[in-house]
Design a protein that fits this description.
This protein is an alpha+beta fold. The chain has helices at residues 5-18, 30-42, 114-120; strands at residues 23-27, 45-53, 56-63, 76-78, 87-88, 102-107, 110-113, 124-130.
Length: 131
């Protein structure tokens, strides 16, 4: 059994991207679904859909590659870990990788990207970064 579904999802996406797979299957949770939705909005993945099989839910993620077949995701990292949570205020969440990357933040207004969290003036737990 997996304890940290976010870390498992990020690892599955990273491994599938490195192997140049078309799609990967993640274990479903509302948090993982909202993170994948942000990845799709920012253009790191092509699309995703939710599959229910034997009363278990999975998220099928279609990965995205550029015209040359190179992976769009350069690096994907978990920031907050179960043993060490990382929290930042609204003013500390500005830009990541000079605007080329995205940090996913769990706030009181839901799971947001760093740009939206900064605009709305809310801080929270830094879940992961991607660029």
């Amino acid at each position: 059994m997996v304890n940290d579904l976010v870390a498992d999802a990020l690892t599955r996406i990273r491994n599938a991207s490195m192997r140049r797979l078309e799609a990967t299957k993640l274990l479903h949770s509302k948090l993982v679904e909202s993170i994948v939705k942000i990845f799709q909005e920012k253009g790191y993945i092509e699309s995703f859909n939710i599959i229910e099989k034997d009363n278990k839910k999975f998220i099928n993620v279609i990965l995205k590659y550029d015209d040359n077949g190179n992976q769009v995701i350069n690096e994907i990292k978990k920031i907050s870990k179960p043993g060490r949570r990382v929290y930042k205020g609204a003013k500390e969440i500005k830009r990541f990788k000079n605007g080329y990357g995205t940090i996913v933040v769990s706030t009181s207004k839901g799971v947001l990207s760093n740009e939206i969290a900064y605009k709305e003036g809310v801080g929270g737990e830094l879940l992961c970064s991607i660029w």
